[in-house]
Design goal:
Largest sheet: 9 strands, mixed
Number of helices: 14
CATH superfamily of the domain at 414-503: ANL, C-terminal domain
GO molecular function, one term: medium-chain fatty acid-CoA ligase activity
Distance between the termini: 61 Å
Protein name: Crotonobetaine/carnitine-CoA ligase
Shape: globular
CATH architecture of the domain at 414-503: 2-Layer Sandwich
Number of strands: 26
Radius of gyration: 23 Å
Structural class: alpha/beta
CATH topology of the domain at 414-503: GMP Synthetase, Chain A, domain 3
Keywords: Ligase
Pfam family, one: AMP-binding_C
CATH class of the domain at 414-503: Alpha Beta
Helix content: 25-40%
InterPro entries: AMP-bd_C (IPR025110), AMP-bd_C_sf (IPR045851), AMP-binding_CS (IPR020845), AMP-dep_synth/lig_dom (IPR000873), ANL_N_sf (IPR042099)
Length: about 500
């Protein structure tokens, strides 16, 4: 389908309704196993009705509407209804505490909040109206579901420009206040066209989304590309390691998207399921060679490691769908993206040298428009059509990019630069270690010492001395951690990343 005359998310949805209105578009399974379904036409009608309810509440073009919802059909209706008005969706993590929500509501200047009853207390005392996606009480004014039943499905006027902001996606904010990434309608359309092309999606494809929808992954990599080609979506309220492949089988899913942490959980908990329809699962973050091989063999599925950020919209680096896949790498530059590795002075480094991943693109189309109300951070990240990711990688002789570490996770110890991810990779190869995180802590002599935090596999035992001896046998002496701490589990973000900021202890060592 040509996107030549499509300027907004609503335009794209309307075009697919014209072509395949009776086709099943969306299936949503809640935690109790109940499934709601909608064809393209049914989904569009609900979007228009909710859009008219929001318009009655005074929502207009440019207004911010904050969503505090789990994965649900309500989230999907709200996303498309808000953007169909030219308003701006601000999706947030349902696990965020009240203090963080205070900041996000204030910083985003949200005019309206859509949530569920169990989260209402987080918004008490705020001078912003709260509407409930579903409400068991008698006040119909609060109940969006009831009001949608009574609303008409006549489309509102659509004067949306492709460079209008469609969403503000807040970063995790593990080391500072979250930054609001401004995403335009053109960004979403690019994500749909680019990812569907790179993954060769067709109208026969069905994506299984289990990661939280407030995050860019489910929006960029599956929802938008599947709408672009007229495919279908299966969405689950929560990720379940034990049920993942059973759900894929039941929904006839052909493509999925995961992170390393959920994949490790699947390996640990899921039964072997091989008679599913999956052809590919894209994933991000590192696994060991053994884990990758075990996953592909155990579940009979092809894996493709990718690299992308909320700010890059699409995946500037990914393993090829056709050709040589090297899933210990983050792949090669995708069609339409230019990627280079730069040093502290912005100069391109030689192959084999570590440099910052730097992505060329167009603001508001292939790259984010910028950070909301943060001109300083925008200027630091976007320079002359290049986005500086603060992620380090290196290009080896095979031409593939290999992720090294976040710049903030690189440790300079006694004059030597150490990628903590390299030490973690060695630790994770130990047969008794399930996962690890290495951090730098203050040291009066060497400025920084290394501390490894380790989670053991179930039923296994190791001493601190055994971990250190293992490291001494497998990595250079200056990379061996001085301190070891065993944990039951790691604090993680909603997409499974270890929150290292919560692990750093300002030099206090627990022995």
């Amino acid at each position: 389908m040509s996107l030549a005359n499509i300027l907004s998310i609503r335009d794209l949805l309307e075009k697919q309704v014209e072509i395949r209105g009776d086709k099943l578009f969306l299936e949503v399974e809640d935690v109790d196993g109940c499934v709601e379904k909608a064809t393209y036409q049914e989904f569009y009608n609900s979007v228009l009705k909710l859009g008219n309810v929001l318009a009655e509440e005074g929502v207009k073009k440019g207004d911010k509407v904050l969503l505090h919802l789990p994965n649900s059909i309500d989230f999907m209706h709200a996303w498309f209804a808000i953007t169909s008005l030219g308003a701006v969706m601000v999706p947030t993590n349902i696990l965020s505490p009240k203090k963080e929500m205070d900041y996000l509501v204030q910083h985003s200047e949200s005019k309206l909040i859509i949530t569920e009853e169990e989260y209402v207390e987080k918004f008490e005392g705020m001078d912003v109206k709260v509407l409930l996606a579903r409400y068991r009480g008698s006040n119909i004014e609060l109940n969006l579901k009831e009001r949608m039943y009574q609303a008409h499905s006549t489309p509102s006027d659509n004067d949306i420009n492709c460079l209008d902001i469609a969403a503000i996606l807040y970063t995790s904010g593990t080391t500072s206040k979250p930054k609001g990434v401004m995403i335009t309608h053109a960004n979403y359309l690019h994500a749909g066209e680019y990812m569907s092309s790179m993954l060769k999606m067709t109208s026969n494809d069905k994506g299984l989304i289990v990661l939280p929808m407030f995050h860019g992954n489910g929006q960029y990599y599956l929802t938008m590309p599947l709408i672009t080609v007229g495919g279908s979506i299966a969405l689950t309220e929560k990720f379940s390691a034990t049920k993942y492949f059973e759900q894929a089988q039941r929904f006839d899913a052909t493509i999925g998207s995961l992170f390393a942490a959920p994949m490790k959980m699947i390996l640990k908990k899921a039964k072997s399921v091989t008679d599913h329809s999956f052809r590919d699962i894209i994933f991000a973050q590192s696994l060991t060679k053994e884990q990758l091989q075990e996953f592909e063999d155990h579940f009979n599925v092809n894996l493709l490691q990718i690299y992308g950020m909320t700010e890059t919209v699409g995946t500037p680096l990914m393993n090829p769908l056709e050709g040589v896949r090297k899933n210990m790498s983050i792949g090669i530059a995708g069609s339409g993206y230019s990627v280079k590795l730069t040093n502290a002075y912005g100069k391109t480094v030689s192959d084999g040298e570590i440099g910052q991943i730097t992505v060329k693109g167009k603001k508001g189309k292939t790259l984010m428009l910028g950070y909301y109300k943060d001109e300083e951070a925008t200027k630091k990240t976007l320079k002359n059509d290049w986005l500086y990711t603060e992620d380090n990688a290196k290009i080896l002789e095979d031409g593939y990019f290999y992720f090294v570490d976040r710049m903030k996770d690189m440790v300079k110890r006694a004059g030597e630069n150490i990628a903590t991810s390299e030490v973690e990779s060695v630790l994770n190869e130990h047969p008794k270690i399930a996962d690890s995180a290495v951090i730098g802590i203050k040291d009066e002599i060497r400025d920084v010492s290394l501390k490894a935090l380790v989670v053991l596999k179930d039923g296994e035992k190791l001493t601190k001395e055994e971990v250190i001896d293992y490291c001494r046998s497998n990595i250079a002496k200056f990379k061996v951690p001085e301190f070891i701490e065993f944990l039951e589990e790691f604090p993680r973000t909603s997409v499974g990343k270890i929150q290292k900021a919560k692990l750093r202890d300002n030099g206090r060592i627990r022995n």
